[in-house]
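Q: Can someone sanity-check these two? First one:
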Amino acid sequence: MEWRDEGIVLGTRKHGETSAILEVMTHAHGRHLGLVRGGRSRRQQPTLQAGNLVDLSWRARLDEHLGVFQAEPVTLHAARLFDSAAGIHALQTLAAHLRLLPERDPHAALYEAMKVMLDHLDEPAAAAELVVRFELLLLEELGFGLDLARCAATGALTDLAYVSPKTGRAVSRAAGAPWHDRMLALPAFLRPGAGIRADRAALDEAFRLTGFFFARSVYEPRGLEPPQARAGFLAALARHFARLEMRGGSAA
């Protein structure tokens, strides 16, 4: 068995004295693990850092075997991302989210989204919007997608202000007013076609929204805790916005 694909390094772990187990997210083969012989060498370690885009070849005698990777660098994002606290935690958050997927299950949309995101994860405000949109996409890929396009009660396409915690569907301001204290806020920047940037309050609402549905639909049924990396990312964002406020700046 053999294939070649493009992939994003999610992480590595030691194997024996000189080798490493490489975990990647690939375009056509999903999240995949394989052995890299000599992966702990000085020559290969820079290529195998999390966040790097690599060209991969995989070979095994049988499809169900771990197999052996050969990885060649395409774009080395790791050094730039590791200079940013938000970048490190964002990358670790994405990797933790992808581990919710079955290994070797293709999810090309998630791969392409992450590939685009790598250019911006060291920009905290941009990274925040991208990560929360990635979480919405992941919920959809897991079968728990939210319907934010129209009001569940009236069918209205405008003035959508809430999301029902029961159905995951948008609700207009007027229709949701009697139950506003039970609803989740729908930040304006997440409304389809909004075309606006998020401020700190909107990002807090957005992560509260996705966090609620991850907890209810994914973590709790599987007996899992939310990833620590996500909490670290949110803390890094909070520090970023606090510094901006102290300087009287903006997130843009």
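And here is the second, same format, sequence then tokens:
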Amino acid sequence: MAHDVGLEVIDGVRELLPTLRDRAQEAEDARAVPADSIKALEGTGFFRLLQPAAFGGLEADPLTFYGGVRSIASACGSTGWVASVLGVHPWHLGLFPAQAQHEVWGSDPATRISSSYAPTGKAVAVDGGHHVSGRWSFSSGCDHASWVLLGQIVTDAANRPTDFRTFLLPRADYVIDDVWDTVGLRGTGSNDIVVAGTFVPEHRSLSFADVFKLACPGQALNPAPLYRLPYGSVFSYSITAPIIGMATGAYEAHAAYMRDRVRVAYAGQQAAQDPFAQVRIAEAGAEIDGAWLALERNARDLMACARAGEPIPVDLRLRVRRDQVRGTGQAVRAVDRLFENSGGRALKSGTPIQRFWRDAHAGRVHAINDPERALSMYGGGEFGLPVPPDAML
């Protein structure tokens, strides 16, 4: 049933695509996704796809979620990015202790959460929880959220690291500093989160040691297979899926443009008749298809293990990260090939191809897309080396 409902959500998302496409420049100019777009996506049920059933969520297959993300990002890269990030956080909160979930969703199941996982603040263990302070950057869609997830290394009184945890804070405990002014993903509103200093109770934090072991307190409340998947798999693909979506949007825009384009520099030749242009779009299409087919295979294999109640093997987790960073690279290469093939007029502000080109490259520099780190982990695993204890798997 949940899977069927998820597909109905995707149908609703597809109906919004023309509107989201028309608002792409508005999002870029405002440096934030329009509130009406977030409201419309909420109306489709999109943000409930990975939310626990205990709070009105659909507990849909992750592949359904990623497909929705791809569609949204094909219309507007920034909107797809924000939708994916805000949409994956209900899954992450589902791993937290039940008390934390009730605090966020108890009175309003539509409550949204943003994040910044890079440990750039300070967290010290105190009685009953932690004292958290500092500044975290790149919190995409934070203006559309009333809670935030912050990653941080925990230190003891002697400033020695003891744990790496994610902390959940309500809007009253932090301020948003509007610093987002970039060349790509301009519409994501990925501003800074500033915490002057606040107490975070124990139930509103989650150790990455538990996350890595796939043994989290929230699984008692949320026993569905969805919540037995690795964070490093689910979250990493929530970053790659919108980039594949941007490449898909660039492909569609480029194909439509080239059908009517006349190349003045080549004696009025129809661009569609240029065999080299035909080769370039074929190469771009193959890159996009390859990235998506790997995502589909990995999502199915992960869920097959979870549904069978089997542990997720490390070699599968390593393969997911290998294919995830490769998928990002394939999508970016596809956009590059399409951009090269579009001619000088593609440089004009407001055209879809240059926006997708900038957005895809901006998404590529997210830390989860570091190819060498993920590929080295995979290679080490193939050679029988131990997985690093801090591996994002």
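A (reply): Looked at the second one. Residues 113-213 form a domain with the Butyryl-CoA Dehydrogenase, subunit A; domain 2 fold (CATH 2.40.110.10). The mean pLDDT is 94.
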